[in-house]
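Anyone else keep sequences and structure tokens together like this?

Example one:
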Amino acid sequence: MTRPYDGDADGIARLTFERYQRHVNPGIASLLKFSGFEYPEWDAEGCIIRDVAGNEYIDCVGGYGVFSLGHRHPEVVKAVHEQMDRLTLKTHYFLSIGLGQVCEMLAEISPEGLEYAFLCNSGTEAVEGALKAARIHTGRPGIVGTLNGYHGKTFGALSASGREVYRKPFEPLLQGFTLVPFGDADAVRRVVGPETAAVIVEVVQGEGGVNVAPPGYLTQLREITREAGALLIVDEVRTGLGRTGRMFACEHEGVCPDLLTMAKALGGGVMPVGAFLGTAEIWQSLFSENPYLHTSTFGGNPLACAAAIAAIETTRRLDLPRRSAELGEHLLQRLREMAARYPQMIREARGLGLLAGVEFHSEDVAKLVIAACASEKLLVAYSLNNPLVIRIEPPLIIEQELLDRALDILEQAIEGTAALLESVGTLSV
């Protein structure tokens, strides 16, 4: 196929914009065009994305955790291609070799006790499954989540998430959900009781602004839930498969949850794959009387399983958790140096592994820095639940030289924004 940017890139951009306006989402189309992304994306490889005009961008958004192996990793692409030549989607009349294999692999790499897995298509589906499993296993209705937590936008996942701008338009949400401040174990203890089925928590709140759980927090939640006969659900949709420097973020404290959700990186950046994992006892409650009580038409299909198997194998072979830990130290050091140089703009730099955030004093400043990075062909992430924070979460395969180049661009964007604000008298330096 001829590359569009060898031809009429402007024409393709106009046509795509018009289609979005008429048939997709006019608001997103206008926002992206205003932000300088008028050209549609076209191809990608590794840590680089290209648009139809041939512009190359360093990807430090990483699909919000999807592209841990980068774009189109050859081993994952090969596995999916080979599977496509045999069987694509499930017939639902036969056992699946790939599904059995990927679930076994997930049990091998997951915290102790998580022996079973259910494959679905996204993180929010994984959360929905875990919430259902918690309720049927305990016979209780109550779920405790955290403020600024993010678990997805379906009704159950949204009910457990914590920012009003996404919740309010759809109220009333599901009953039985209580939200407490993140990192406050005493707040959890006060609301957990005989009606609590589960506490659901992220180890690092990604959309909340890269809020890292304080030391001992997860351990305390494990103790609180066990004492109350409730379950602990750890949401590793963003952090699973090495993002924070361990295969799963809960391993930093050696905590074994009752249920664990994951997605994003599980598809190797090629297929949409989600999963929730649980103990044998929970699986007995969920499936013993009716093995069809929780199902998915597309979940665990052969193509998804091929991608997940290749993603897990590649992550282990390249020892990406270790790589993430080492590069993460370098990333955080540089971000903290920037924070020290620009205290009038930056409140804090924080992170774990290759998931880092820079919190600014103003939402407007954060938006200006994101725009300045984009103009220099660097993609960094906006945080849905905390607009003060921009996130840096590159593929785990990124070379340090490219990471440093990205950080140089980020620092230039911060410096340029500071100069701009100083020139108009809105920043004291």
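And example two:
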Amino acid sequence: MLRVAIIGCGKIADSHAAQIRRIPNCALVGACDREELMARQFAERFAIPLAFTCVDDMLQNARPNVVHITTPPQSHYALARQCLEAGVHVYVEKPFTLHTAEAEELIRVAQTRGLKITAGHDDQFSHVARRLRALVRQGWLGGPPVHLESVYGYEMSDGYAKALLGDQNHWVRQLPGGLLHNIISHGIARIAEYCDSPKPLVIAHGFVSPFLARLGERQIMDELRVIISEASGRTAYFTFSSQMRPCLHQFRIYGPRNGLLLDEDHQSLVRLPGTRRKSYAEKFVSPVAHGLGHIASAVRNVRTFLAADFHMKSGMKYLAESFYQSIVRDAPLPIPYEEILRVSRIMDAIFQKLAWLSDHACTRQDARPPDISVG
């Protein structure tokens, strides 16, 4: 029986606890939060036997094999290192760390101590994401990806966003990349999985939307456009927007022969054939084929629902279970360390670029920001 504990008893911790309880051969043995009431309430809701306000006390008394860290990102590095040095495997919520240097150090400590660590890129393990990965591995693209497009929409009208806008001291505002830093790793991870260059070129442009500007907000960037280019010629676009409608969470991947369209919200996957039909058949047959792809996804979703496996956070359950299996069976990690680091490096490059733009916002309009290579 694998013993699991959670540090940080906020909103996202509820999702972790709910999914961990669905995994066989593991048990939640401890909850920790610096606010005692948060820890106790969380432990009561999920029938966790022990609640703590001190991480050392939790590690010593609950004796977990794995710890999930679901605190604000500023504390990820210190807490993960503390757990690793205590001999415990670690699952860290996104973003993995604030900077690549911290990510590299955590991975080094884990490897040195014979432990494992992973990042909470759970969208990469939803039902539809796993279907896309299988088709890519089966050769549907006709070769390595040529171009990738990831779009991640964000609603500024929910309770979390309202709390952020209303609190000038909110912890999200203290992140190097602000709101973007806390959100975009899901969309960037889509791209990073299919990149292979250690030094992609990153060009980024971010700004405060007119909507937020009208509310008097000047600090929070909620619009981001990114171009990523590799030496091999592979390219990628990443879009983050709080204003685009519909609010999309999509990923497109194009190969030399065919492409694929993933829609996370609808859990749909549509094949995009690379060949065109002759004459007017292209106008009639292709729309029908596209529609049939959505219908097939709907049928598959119904089957998954009837099998009681259509949870909103099913990707988190799959990622955690795969991580646990990698520990118990000494199997490969669900997310290679190179991929975790690639996400971190791309994000570092984006925020370096945005910092340059912010520093030069009041200078000459024709000033050209530097292109940034990840390294």
